[in-house]
Write a structure and sequence with these properties.
Chain A: Pfam families: Voldacs (PF03517). Chain A: Its main location: cytoplasm. Chain A: It is found in: Cytoplasm; Nucleus. The complex is a heterodimer of chains A (234) and B (93). Chain A has 234 residues and is an alpha+beta fold. Chain A has four helices and nine strands; from the N terminus they run E-E-E-E-E-E-E-E-E-H-H-H-H. Chain A starts with 5 loop residues before the first strand and ends in a 6-residue tail after the last helix. In chain B, 23% of the residues lie in helices and 38% in strands. The N and C termini of chain B lie close together (12 Å). Chain B is elongated. Chain B is built from two helices and five strands. In chain B, strands 4-3-2-1-5 form a five-stranded antiparallel β-sheet. Chain B is of the alpha+beta class. The chains are: A alpha+beta (234), B alpha+beta (93). At the A-B interface, strand 7 and helix 1 of A face strand 4 and helix 2 of B. Strand 7 of chain A pairs antiparallel with strand 4 of chain B, so a sheet runs across the interface.
Chain lengths: 234, 93
């Protein structure tokens, strides 16, 4: 997976001009919008082209230059919106913001002006302008659908492991081992009660059955002989 | 799922969403999903200096993973209730 906007020109050989998708990973074509212009950053609009919306990414392919096309994964699209404000942009369009890896020295947008070498991975805004502006709501809805299909990937291992050792409050006991140093604690009135409530997490469900008490009153009588000479034993 | 449920209750209220890239957008909360993706209506960019081109868009969809804060209406939060619910949820209760 590539972050940010990138070039894309893989078209299928069947003459349809459609982009090649990664079917092995389940990528599907969700919507095709012909006659769409694309404006990257502050650059002038590029036209004519066709927008292909797949379950994984957006692809814009030029209708006239077979080697020109752009793609961006939905994972990299921070937000998208229908823009109809003429003050914001001359034509109604779908405005998208692309998540870019921040570079320390990269504050100004001079790279996105019309220069010879364009670094696509630095493009932060992209507008898609359909010739038919009545299509904007449909496009917006498809964008939403596809964005929902691409949540942040969850690390498999992380999800299965349940012993995170979270601490919820100051009075939470460490119920596992190490009773020696903690022996001063007043643990509970009933030594066999189960501390806390869990939904099956083994670590937390371990009941405190063994009471560790280090109280002088429970010391062996012999050690107390010198003190108890004048007292009764209890 | 706690915050998903919490945000569902806030639908219709005005919130300001601050993204991790510092952009702040104010709008009416239209809907939220389990990934905390947020849809806002009648949005306005709070600080127009950084993103002047984005003056006002009618609907916008914000990816949950890029949200830093969601600023809530003052009376939109019962802090104690939320606090207790969060603790219960963390314990799996």
């Amino acid at each position: 997976m590539v972050a940010g906007l990138r070039e894309f020109a893989l078209r299928s050989g069947d003459g349809s001009g459609k982009p090649v998708l990664d079917e092995s990973s389940g990528e599907e074509l969700m919507h095709v919008q012909p006659s769409v212009a694309v404006a990257l950053g502050n650059r002038p609009v590029e036209f004519p082209g066709t927008l292909y919306i797949t379950s994984r990414k957006l692809i814009w392919l030029s209708d006239v230059d077979m080697a020109k096309g752009y793609a961006v994964d939905f994972l990299s699209i921070s937000l998208h919106a229908v823009s109809r404000d003429p003050e914001a942009y001359s034509s109604p369009c779908i405005y998208t913001q692309i998540e870019v890896e921040e570079d320390e020295d990269d504050d100004d947008d001079s790279d996105t002006e019309s220069t010879e070498v364009l670094d696509l991975s630095k493009i932060r805004e992209m507008r898609l302008v359909p010739s038919d502006s009545t299509q904007l709501e449909t496009m917006f809805d498809v964008f939403c659908e596809c964005a929902e299909l691409n949540p942040e990937p969850v690390d498999e291992e992380e999800e299965e492991e349940s012993g995170h050792n979270w601490v919820f409050s100051a009075d939470q006991m460490d119920v596992r081992g190490g009773a020696d140093e903690d022996a001063e604690w007043q643990i509970s009135q009933s030594p066999t009660s189960v501390i806390g409530h869990s939904n099956g997490d083994e670590g937390l469900a371990q009941p405190m059955l063994e009471l560790q008490i280090n109280d002088q009153r429970f010391e062996d009588a012999e050690e107390m002989v010198h003190e108890s000479e004048t007292k009764d034993h209890h | 799922m706690l915050f998903f449920s919490y945000f569902k209750d806030l639908v219709g209220q005005e919130v300001t969403v601050e993204l991790k890239n510092d952009l702040a957008i104010r709008g009416t909360l239209h809907s939220v999903d389990q990934y905390l993706n947020i849809k806002l209506e009648n949005t306005k960019v709070v600080d127009q200096d950084k993103y002047p081109h984005m003056l006002s868009v009618r609907n916008c969809f914000i990816r949950g993973s890029v949200v830093r804060y969601v600023q809530l209406p003052k009376d939109g939060v019962d802090v104690d209730l939320l606090h207790d619910a969060a603790r219960r949820e963390a314990r799996g209760g």
